[in-house]
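cron nightly-structures :: item 1 of 1
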Amino acid sequence: MKRVPVRLSEFAKQVFPCLNAVEKNKEIQIFPHARVDGDCIGSASALAVGLRKMGYAARIMLDAPIPPRLHFMEIPEDLYLLVTPENESEAVSSQGLAFAVDCSEAHRMGGCEALYAQAKTKVVIDHHISDNYDRELQYINPKAASASELVFVFLRELELLTGKTLLDASQANWLMIGIQSDSGKFSFENTNARTFRAAADLMELGANVSDNAYHLFDESSKGKALLQGRALSDFKLFMDGRIAVTKITQKMLDETQAPDGAADGIANLLRDIDTVLAAFAVRECEDGVLRVNCRSKEGFDAAAFAQTMGGGGHHRASGFTAKNTDIDSFVEKIVAAASAFLEKK
């Protein structure tokens, strides 16, 4: 089994020949995970611009538009392609090299899964726990606070290899957004000294921490406030208060007219209850899928639990989904599984 390079400098040297091998009429395609967040779209955007500064054609492949809650990032429309059945064959024909950022599995890319799977050469930069450490070109570091932190260092290494300046103020801010988003304002357990060093460098390049924090964590709306109120008033505790669960139904979303992303953060609020070790926010989606956000404290490994449910993530923040079941039945399954998981500890 091929292990992850110890340093990103080594990894950059491994990737560099693959970049040089991209044909002139081909593009480098960058794949974040579906349902984009600040980290995946921030790291992907910074990487795409950096590769363009090296002279390559590079675009981000998305299966859905960037959600309104992230419009403050002001990512140029020419930087990404919304992949559809109508343009997918064209994207396949122009594909030269594929980067996966903030994810390492094709199934996490939603409607872009098949396009990524067809790439002959794939490069992975991720910080999520993975069982697959045997690919030739991947850097997966679960100890990193964000993929943006890794992409920043990767671009710095490419600057050393090329002698070119590959980072500007816009890229720095996108990467800072990614770090702030996945480190929870530099408060999660995954935040470390390297995170702060990267953040300091990005601030010197022009990143705006305060504006980012407002848009990511503080900005709200009437619909979001109403939804959070409903979800928090109806939560339930189990296992002597160690497990907290709330349901967010499609009816609640419709009645509150909550915007996209309004349910984000609800699991964090439940996790902050003093007795709670694991909190779950279970949400109905229009496509019939149930999406679960899990947030935890020491004593409950959210990533390990999510893997038992077919999902993944980090030790203190993870997620998973379910199909072909109703929300009440799935909540019962989550509570039973989480209770058994706790009893093993």
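cron nightly-structures :: done
The mean pLDDT is 94.
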